[in-house]
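hey m, so remember when u said the tokens were messed up on ur end? i reran from scratch. heres the input so u can diff it against urs
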Amino acid sequence: MTERKRNLSDVEDVRDGEVSGSKKFKDGTGKKRHIAALVLARGGSKGIPLKNIKMLAGVPLVGWVLRAAVDSNMFDSVWVSTDHDEIEKVARAWGAQVHRRSPEVSQDSSSSLDTIQEFSRLNPEMDVICNIQATSPCLHPSHLQEALQLITLQDFQSVFSVVRRHQFRWQEGKKGAGVSTRPLNLDPACRPRRQDWDGELCENGSFYFATRELIQQGLLQGGKMAYYEMLPEFSVDIDVDIDWPVAEQRVLRFGYFGRAQPEVVRLLLCVVCGGLTDGQVLLSASGEEMLSFSTRDTRGIRMLQEEGVEVVLLSSMEEPLSSALCERLTQRTGCPVRQLGADVQADVRAMMAKRGLGWNEVAYLGNDEQDVTCLTLAGLSAVPLHAPTGALNAAKYSCHSGGGRGALREFAEHILLLKKKAKAQLEQDRINRHTF
């Protein structure tokens, strides 16, 4: 096995967007090579039903790796291979094309290689395929960028991800009388200290790059091959339900949340009906309209305001609020209420232009179909629990709480967590630049 080599200047060029597939990835004859990303997402998962689109930290599981693949800017096409309609909808919402796999490779007994070979056979223009595992939600664009350079710049035919483990392994003894075992990677009489042992490289299943020629031979690893080592914190895999809560905590800390720069979020737009409230308008005996909302949400608003984020409440044309209710909401929350017209996006753009803001500086909490465009364009976006499918697929975060039941507070905490992470990353980058 060939050890991974890193050319830091090349890596930085890729991260800065100066090297793309259309400019760099050519074969020996100068012909452009088609590099494709492929995520396998069968609908018949036995351990966790429809695992691939189950929400993990507010994002469908497959969405984490699709976002990393799309944002890497290294692929000519990004695909999901599936046999399920709902997975197809989610895949398209997260920027992927869809390959509807045949029944022959959709069985419990079907292997990943069978499915990849079918995809390769039906798409002969693809020269290199990267099989990305949907169950690896801590994958980052930089992992794909650096690994792919081993193929495009150093002519490897296959590259796969590994993680370094410091675990002593023993051979399983045979059952019955006289069960025995023996060590596989250590001498019990001279057990090494962790700091004196390099450990072992283990596949973490995150991704496998292979050329078309290798795949046709029935191989994902072969020819001139190299490994790409990922740090343990990014090596997360999900197989059974017990993995889910652990993975959720890991992805909140180490996951990739997109190109948006949370540290520059200046404005949160929140739909009142279904966002700040549960969507109900109550009528008193005298005909007076009333709304109810959670004090957790008003505290969330104050948390954002204390960090310099302006909050504006939105009243839609479909669910207009009386001037009296708008005035009362402003008094209670300290936020202005803006009545939107038929063109929600145009009204939001006008608010942004007035403040000199771009979409990357805007967070949006929406609730329904009329919010889809803004949910898609905003740097950060969210929907409350039980939002319609269209809005859910467009949002970058799905709240565990319902509208009027803490959804705004949850989204506020999410924004502030990402801002904190972004600031820490900026500081680390500054330290790294001085180090090198």
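this time it looks ok to me. The two ends are 29 Å apart (CA to CA). if urs says something different then somethings off w ur setup not the seq
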